[in-house]
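Morning run. Coffee first, then this:
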Amino acid sequence: MVRSHLSPYDLSPNQFFSNVSLDDIAVTILSQINHPDWTTIYSPFVLFVFAIFTPSFTTILLKFLYLSLDIFIFHIIKRSYGRKLSILLWLLPIWIKEIHWNLHFEILIVFFIFLTRLSYFKKRIYVSSFLYGLSFHIKLTSVIFCFEIFNIFLKFLKTKKNKVYKCFGLGLFFFLGFGLFFFAFKLYFYDVKISFGITKIIQFTNDFRFNQFFQRTLFLILPGLERIVLLPILITIIFYIYSLKAHKTKVRYKDKTFEYKFYFLFGYSALILIPVQNPWYFLLLLPYLPSARKLFLIPSLILLWIPQVSYITNVRLGLLSDWFYEIPSEIYLWEALLSGFCLIVLFGQRFILLYKISNISNMDSIITYEGDPDGRRAKEPRKTYWKRS
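And here it is:
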Protein backbone atom coordinates (compact mmCIF):
# COMPACT_ATOMS: atom_id res chain seq x y z
CA MET A 1 0.00 0.00 0.00
CA VAL A 2 2.76 2.43 0.93
CA ARG A 3 4.50 1.78 -2.41
CA SER A 4 1.16 2.54 -4.11
CA HIS A 5 0.91 5.80 -2.16
CA LEU A 6 -2.08 4.49 -0.21
CA SER A 7 -2.20 4.98 3.55
CA PRO A 8 -2.55 1.71 5.53
CA TYR A 9 -4.07 3.81 8.32
CA ASP A 10 -7.07 4.61 6.13
CA LEU A 11 -7.37 1.49 3.97
CA SER A 12 -7.65 -2.10 5.22
CA PRO A 13 -6.01 -5.05 3.38
CA ASN A 14 -9.44 -6.31 2.34
CA GLN A 15 -10.27 -2.95 0.78
CA PHE A 16 -6.89 -2.75 -0.95
CA PHE A 17 -7.08 -6.20 -2.52
CA SER A 18 -10.73 -5.76 -3.48
CA ASN A 19 -9.55 -3.38 -6.21
CA VAL A 20 -7.28 -5.95 -7.84
CA SER A 21 -7.72 -9.52 -8.96
CA LEU A 22 -7.00 -11.98 -6.16
CA ASP A 23 -4.17 -14.08 -7.53
CA ASP A 24 -2.37 -16.74 -5.50
CA ILE A 25 0.04 -14.20 -3.97
CA ALA A 26 -2.78 -11.94 -2.76
CA VAL A 27 -4.68 -14.87 -1.28
CA THR A 28 -1.54 -16.01 0.54
CA ILE A 29 -0.94 -12.53 1.96
CA LEU A 30 -4.52 -12.15 3.17
CA SER A 31 -4.41 -15.58 4.81
CA GLN A 32 -1.36 -14.53 6.87
CA ILE A 33 -2.91 -11.29 8.17
CA ASN A 34 -4.65 -11.70 11.51
CA HIS A 35 -7.25 -8.99 10.92
CA PRO A 36 -7.45 -8.19 7.19
CA ASP A 37 -10.59 -6.13 7.74
CA TRP A 38 -8.78 -3.69 10.08
CA THR A 39 -6.57 -0.77 9.15
CA THR A 40 -3.01 -1.06 10.43
CA ILE A 41 -1.85 -0.25 13.95
CA TYR A 42 1.85 -0.48 13.03
CA SER A 43 4.13 2.54 13.32
CA PRO A 44 5.35 4.48 10.25
CA PHE A 45 8.91 3.15 10.64
CA VAL A 46 7.68 -0.45 10.44
CA LEU A 47 5.52 0.36 7.42
CA PHE A 48 8.50 1.94 5.65
CA VAL A 49 10.63 -1.14 6.41
CA PHE A 50 7.98 -3.48 5.04
CA ALA A 51 7.48 -1.29 1.97
CA ILE A 52 11.21 -1.15 1.16
CA PHE A 53 12.14 -4.77 1.91
CA THR A 54 9.12 -6.56 0.41
CA PRO A 55 9.20 -5.67 -3.30
CA SER A 56 6.64 -7.52 -5.45
CA PHE A 57 5.22 -9.12 -2.27
CA THR A 58 8.37 -11.20 -1.72
CA THR A 59 10.03 -11.43 1.69
CA ILE A 60 13.55 -12.39 0.63
CA LEU A 61 15.01 -8.95 1.32
CA LEU A 62 13.16 -8.71 4.63
CA LYS A 63 14.56 -12.06 5.73
CA PHE A 64 18.04 -10.91 4.71
CA LEU A 65 17.57 -7.74 6.78
CA TYR A 66 16.48 -9.76 9.81
CA LEU A 67 19.44 -12.10 9.38
CA SER A 68 21.84 -9.14 9.19
CA LEU A 69 20.42 -7.63 12.38
CA ASP A 70 20.59 -11.04 14.04
CA ILE A 71 24.27 -11.39 13.14
CA PHE A 72 24.94 -7.98 14.70
CA ILE A 73 23.13 -9.03 17.91
CA PHE A 74 25.08 -12.31 17.94
CA HIS A 75 28.36 -10.39 17.57
CA ILE A 76 27.51 -8.06 20.48
CA ILE A 77 26.56 -10.95 22.77
CA LYS A 78 29.65 -12.91 21.74
CA ARG A 79 32.03 -10.02 22.50
CA SER A 80 30.36 -9.26 25.83
CA TYR A 81 29.41 -12.67 27.22
CA GLY A 82 31.25 -15.35 25.23
CA ARG A 83 30.68 -17.70 22.31
CA LYS A 84 28.65 -20.42 24.08
CA LEU A 85 25.93 -18.14 25.37
CA SER A 86 25.73 -16.22 22.10
CA ILE A 87 25.21 -19.46 20.14
CA LEU A 88 22.62 -20.65 22.67
CA LEU A 89 20.54 -17.50 22.29
CA TRP A 90 21.14 -17.14 18.54
CA LEU A 91 19.87 -20.67 17.88
CA LEU A 92 16.93 -20.36 20.26
CA PRO A 93 14.11 -22.23 18.44
CA ILE A 94 11.35 -19.78 19.38
CA TRP A 95 13.52 -16.89 18.17
CA ILE A 96 14.08 -18.58 14.81
CA LYS A 97 10.40 -19.50 14.51
CA GLU A 98 8.90 -16.12 15.41
CA ILE A 99 11.51 -13.83 13.82
CA HIS A 100 12.90 -15.64 10.79
CA TRP A 101 9.90 -17.78 9.94
CA ASN A 102 6.91 -15.66 10.97
CA LEU A 103 8.84 -12.40 10.34
CA HIS A 104 7.66 -10.53 13.43
CA PHE A 105 9.46 -7.21 13.75
CA GLU A 106 10.39 -7.47 17.44
CA ILE A 107 13.94 -7.98 16.20
CA LEU A 108 13.99 -4.29 15.25
CA ILE A 109 13.37 -3.30 18.88
CA VAL A 110 15.92 -5.77 20.24
CA PHE A 111 18.48 -4.49 17.71
CA PHE A 112 17.95 -0.84 18.67
CA ILE A 113 18.10 -1.66 22.40
CA PHE A 114 21.51 -3.31 21.93
CA LEU A 115 22.53 -0.32 19.82
CA THR A 116 21.30 2.00 22.60
CA ARG A 117 23.56 0.26 25.11
CA LEU A 118 26.50 0.31 22.72
CA SER A 119 26.09 4.06 22.15
CA TYR A 120 26.01 4.64 25.92
CA PHE A 121 29.22 2.65 26.45
CA LYS A 122 30.86 4.73 23.72
CA LYS A 123 29.73 7.84 25.63
CA ARG A 124 27.23 8.93 22.97
CA ILE A 125 24.36 9.44 25.36
CA TYR A 126 22.26 11.60 23.07
CA VAL A 127 22.44 8.94 20.37
CA SER A 128 21.24 6.45 22.99
CA SER A 129 18.30 8.71 23.80
CA PHE A 130 17.43 9.01 20.09
CA LEU A 131 17.62 5.23 19.55
CA TYR A 132 15.41 4.48 22.54
CA GLY A 133 12.90 7.03 21.24
CA LEU A 134 12.97 5.18 17.90
CA SER A 135 12.41 1.86 19.70
CA PHE A 136 9.46 3.40 21.52
CA HIS A 137 8.15 4.62 18.16
CA ILE A 138 8.37 1.12 16.65
CA LYS A 139 6.22 -0.37 19.41
CA LEU A 140 4.93 0.97 22.69
CA THR A 141 5.86 -2.28 24.42
CA SER A 142 9.40 -0.84 24.48
CA VAL A 143 8.24 0.70 27.75
CA ILE A 144 9.55 -2.49 29.39
CA PHE A 145 13.07 -1.05 28.96
CA CYS A 146 12.24 2.24 30.70
CA PHE A 147 13.93 1.31 34.01
CA GLU A 148 17.22 0.49 32.32
CA ILE A 149 17.19 3.59 30.12
CA PHE A 150 16.18 5.81 33.03
CA ASN A 151 19.08 4.40 35.05
CA ILE A 152 21.48 5.10 32.14
CA PHE A 153 20.29 8.70 31.93
CA LEU A 154 20.51 9.08 35.70
CA LYS A 155 24.14 7.93 35.76
CA PHE A 156 24.94 10.36 32.95
CA LEU A 157 23.32 13.34 34.71
CA LYS A 158 25.12 12.63 37.98
CA THR A 159 28.50 13.19 36.34
CA LYS A 160 27.59 16.40 34.55
CA LYS A 161 27.06 20.03 35.39
CA ASN A 162 24.10 21.98 34.01
CA LYS A 163 21.79 19.05 34.69
CA VAL A 164 18.70 20.93 33.49
CA TYR A 165 20.33 21.62 30.12
CA LYS A 166 21.50 18.01 29.76
CA CYS A 167 18.09 16.67 30.79
CA PHE A 168 16.43 18.88 28.19
CA GLY A 169 18.84 17.54 25.56
CA LEU A 170 18.05 13.93 26.46
CA GLY A 171 14.31 14.61 26.25
CA LEU A 172 14.71 16.44 22.94
CA PHE A 173 16.62 13.59 21.30
CA PHE A 174 14.14 11.03 22.68
CA PHE A 175 11.18 12.84 21.14
CA LEU A 176 13.15 13.36 17.95
CA GLY A 177 13.64 9.60 17.63
CA PHE A 178 10.00 8.99 18.53
CA GLY A 179 8.48 11.53 16.16
CA LEU A 180 10.86 11.64 13.18
CA PHE A 181 9.12 8.96 11.13
CA PHE A 182 5.66 10.27 11.98
CA PHE A 183 6.78 13.51 10.34
CA ALA A 184 8.36 11.65 7.40
CA PHE A 185 5.21 9.62 6.86
CA LYS A 186 3.11 12.77 6.93
CA LEU A 187 5.36 14.35 4.31
CA TYR A 188 5.06 11.25 2.11
CA PHE A 189 1.26 11.36 2.38
CA TYR A 190 1.02 15.14 2.39
CA ASP A 191 -2.37 15.06 0.60
CA VAL A 192 -3.94 12.43 2.88
CA LYS A 193 -5.46 12.89 6.32
CA ILE A 194 -3.69 10.40 8.56
CA SER A 195 -4.73 9.31 12.05
CA PHE A 196 -1.65 7.05 12.55
CA GLY A 197 -3.98 4.33 13.83
CA ILE A 198 -4.34 5.82 17.33
CA THR A 199 -8.11 5.34 17.44
CA LYS A 200 -7.71 1.84 16.02
CA ILE A 201 -5.18 0.94 18.74
CA ILE A 202 -7.65 2.10 21.41
CA GLN A 203 -10.44 0.11 19.79
CA PHE A 204 -8.20 -2.94 19.41
CA THR A 205 -7.16 -2.96 23.08
CA ASN A 206 -10.76 -2.46 24.21
CA ASP A 207 -12.37 -5.09 21.97
CA PHE A 208 -9.72 -7.80 21.72
CA ARG A 209 -8.18 -10.04 24.38
CA PHE A 210 -5.73 -12.84 23.81
CA ASN A 211 -3.76 -15.19 26.05
CA GLN A 212 -4.23 -13.27 29.30
CA PHE A 213 -3.42 -16.46 31.15
CA PHE A 214 -2.88 -14.94 34.60
CA GLN A 215 -6.03 -12.83 34.48
CA ARG A 216 -8.09 -15.64 32.99
CA THR A 217 -6.95 -18.19 35.57
CA LEU A 218 -7.58 -15.84 38.51
CA PHE A 219 -11.01 -15.00 37.09
CA LEU A 220 -11.88 -18.71 36.87
CA ILE A 221 -10.88 -19.15 40.52
CA LEU A 222 -12.86 -16.15 41.73
CA PRO A 223 -14.33 -13.33 39.62
CA GLY A 224 -12.61 -10.08 40.57
CA LEU A 225 -9.45 -11.85 41.72
CA GLU A 226 -7.75 -11.07 38.40
CA ARG A 227 -7.04 -7.55 39.66
CA ILE A 228 -4.16 -8.82 41.81
CA VAL A 229 -2.22 -9.51 38.62
CA LEU A 230 -0.74 -6.07 39.31
CA LEU A 231 1.02 -7.56 42.32
CA PRO A 232 4.12 -8.93 40.48
CA ILE A 233 4.92 -5.59 38.89
CA LEU A 234 4.42 -3.76 42.19
CA ILE A 235 6.74 -6.22 43.95
CA THR A 236 9.33 -5.75 41.21
CA ILE A 237 9.23 -1.97 41.59
CA ILE A 238 9.51 -2.19 45.38
CA PHE A 239 12.48 -4.57 45.12
CA TYR A 240 14.14 -2.32 42.56
CA ILE A 241 13.76 0.75 44.77
CA TYR A 242 15.17 -1.23 47.66
CA SER A 243 18.13 -2.30 45.53
CA LEU A 244 18.82 1.35 44.68
CA LYS A 245 18.87 2.03 48.40
CA ALA A 246 21.39 -0.78 48.79
CA HIS A 247 23.54 0.84 46.12
CA LYS A 248 23.69 4.00 48.21
CA THR A 249 25.10 2.08 51.18
CA LYS A 250 28.56 0.54 51.43
CA VAL A 251 27.68 -2.34 49.09
CA ARG A 252 29.19 -2.27 45.61
CA TYR A 253 28.67 -4.53 42.61
CA LYS A 254 31.25 -5.72 40.11
CA ASP A 255 28.76 -6.67 37.37
CA LYS A 256 25.31 -5.74 36.08
CA THR A 257 23.67 -9.15 36.48
CA PHE A 258 21.88 -8.12 39.66
CA GLU A 259 20.48 -5.04 37.94
CA TYR A 260 19.41 -6.82 34.75
CA LYS A 261 17.44 -9.39 36.73
CA PHE A 262 15.18 -6.62 37.99
CA TYR A 263 14.78 -5.28 34.49
CA PHE A 264 13.74 -8.72 33.25
CA LEU A 265 11.20 -9.18 36.03
CA PHE A 266 9.76 -5.71 35.46
CA GLY A 267 9.50 -6.32 31.71
CA TYR A 268 7.78 -9.67 32.15
CA SER A 269 5.38 -8.25 34.73
CA ALA A 270 4.52 -5.40 32.34
CA LEU A 271 3.89 -7.75 29.41
CA ILE A 272 1.40 -9.89 31.33
CA LEU A 273 -0.71 -6.77 31.95
CA ILE A 274 -1.42 -5.87 28.33
CA PRO A 275 -4.69 -7.05 26.71
CA VAL A 276 -3.02 -8.99 23.88
CA GLN A 277 -0.15 -11.24 24.99
CA ASN A 278 1.12 -12.70 21.74
CA PRO A 279 3.92 -15.22 22.30
CA TRP A 280 6.47 -13.27 20.25
CA TYR A 281 6.10 -10.20 22.50
CA PHE A 282 8.05 -11.96 25.23
CA LEU A 283 11.11 -12.21 22.96
CA LEU A 284 11.67 -8.53 23.76
CA LEU A 285 13.17 -9.74 27.04
CA LEU A 286 16.10 -11.34 25.19
CA PRO A 287 18.53 -8.44 25.90
CA TYR A 288 18.41 -9.30 29.61
CA LEU A 289 19.29 -12.98 29.24
CA PRO A 290 22.99 -12.88 28.26
CA SER A 291 24.08 -11.57 31.67
CA ALA A 292 22.22 -14.32 33.51
CA ARG A 293 23.74 -17.29 35.26
CA LYS A 294 22.17 -20.75 35.07
CA LEU A 295 19.93 -20.35 38.13
CA PHE A 296 18.38 -17.30 36.47
CA LEU A 297 18.72 -18.27 32.80
CA ILE A 298 16.77 -21.56 32.99
CA PRO A 299 13.51 -20.21 34.54
CA SER A 300 13.79 -17.11 32.35
CA LEU A 301 13.99 -19.19 29.19
CA ILE A 302 11.02 -21.22 30.38
CA LEU A 303 9.05 -17.98 30.82
CA LEU A 304 9.80 -17.13 27.18
CA TRP A 305 8.72 -20.58 26.01
CA ILE A 306 5.44 -20.83 27.94
CA PRO A 307 3.36 -18.38 25.82
CA GLN A 308 4.02 -20.57 22.77
CA VAL A 309 1.25 -22.92 23.92
CA SER A 310 -1.25 -20.16 23.09
CA TYR A 311 -1.09 -21.48 19.52
CA ILE A 312 -3.08 -24.47 20.80
CA THR A 313 -6.56 -23.00 20.22
CA ASN A 314 -9.93 -24.75 20.21
CA VAL A 315 -10.02 -24.48 16.40
CA ARG A 316 -6.69 -26.29 16.04
CA LEU A 317 -7.86 -28.96 18.50
CA GLY A 318 -11.08 -29.45 16.57
CA LEU A 319 -13.23 -28.27 19.49
CA LEU A 320 -16.26 -26.00 19.44
CA SER A 321 -15.24 -22.37 19.68
CA ASP A 322 -17.05 -19.05 20.06
CA TRP A 323 -14.26 -17.24 18.20
CA PHE A 324 -11.21 -18.20 16.17
CA TYR A 325 -8.51 -17.44 18.77
CA GLU A 326 -10.25 -18.99 21.77
CA ILE A 327 -7.86 -20.94 24.00
CA PRO A 328 -9.00 -23.84 26.24
CA SER A 329 -9.18 -23.04 29.96
CA GLU A 330 -6.78 -25.91 30.66
CA ILE A 331 -4.09 -24.16 28.60
CA TYR A 332 -4.60 -20.94 30.57
CA LEU A 333 -4.27 -22.87 33.82
CA TRP A 334 -1.10 -24.65 32.66
CA GLU A 335 0.48 -21.37 31.55
CA ALA A 336 -0.39 -19.59 34.79
CA LEU A 337 0.84 -22.35 37.11
CA LEU A 338 4.17 -22.89 35.36
CA SER A 339 4.77 -19.15 34.93
CA GLY A 340 3.87 -18.53 38.56
CA PHE A 341 6.35 -21.19 39.68
CA CYS A 342 9.15 -19.64 37.60
CA LEU A 343 8.34 -16.17 38.95
CA ILE A 344 8.43 -17.47 42.50
CA VAL A 345 11.86 -18.97 41.84
CA LEU A 346 13.12 -15.68 40.40
CA PHE A 347 11.57 -13.48 43.08
CA GLY A 348 12.83 -15.87 45.76
CA GLN A 349 16.39 -15.47 44.49
CA ARG A 350 16.04 -11.69 44.43
CA PHE A 351 14.58 -11.58 47.95
CA ILE A 352 17.42 -13.72 49.34
CA LEU A 353 20.06 -11.51 47.70
CA LEU A 354 18.45 -8.33 48.99
CA TYR A 355 18.16 -9.85 52.45
CA LYS A 356 21.89 -10.69 52.40
CA ILE A 357 22.72 -7.17 51.18
CA SER A 358 20.68 -5.69 54.02
CA ASN A 359 22.51 -7.86 56.57
CA ILE A 360 25.91 -6.91 55.14
CA SER A 361 25.04 -3.21 55.36
CA ASN A 362 23.77 -3.56 58.93
CA MET A 363 26.85 -5.53 60.02
CA ASP A 364 29.12 -2.91 58.51
CA SER A 365 27.28 -0.17 60.39
CA ILE A 366 27.59 -2.12 63.66
CA ILE A 367 31.32 -2.74 63.15
CA THR A 368 31.90 0.91 62.35
CA TYR A 369 29.97 2.00 65.44
CA GLU A 370 31.71 -0.43 67.82
CA GLY A 371 35.17 0.45 66.53
CA ASP A 372 34.50 4.17 66.81
CA PRO A 373 31.91 4.83 69.56
CA ASP A 374 32.49 8.57 69.33
CA GLY A 375 31.80 8.64 65.60
CA ARG A 376 35.18 10.17 64.79
CA ARG A 377 35.74 7.88 61.80
CA ALA A 378 32.15 7.96 60.54
CA LYS A 379 33.26 9.70 57.38
CA GLU A 380 35.46 6.74 56.45
CA PRO A 381 33.20 3.67 56.51
CA ARG A 382 34.65 0.29 55.76
CA LYS A 383 34.08 -0.84 52.17
CA THR A 384 32.25 -4.08 51.53
CA TYR A 385 32.14 -5.66 48.08
CA TRP A 386 29.42 -7.96 46.80
CA LYS A 387 31.12 -10.94 45.19
CA ARG A 388 29.57 -13.15 42.55
CA SER A 389 28.57 -16.50 43.98
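Residues 248-254, 364-389 have pLDDT under 50 and may be disordered. Good start to the day.
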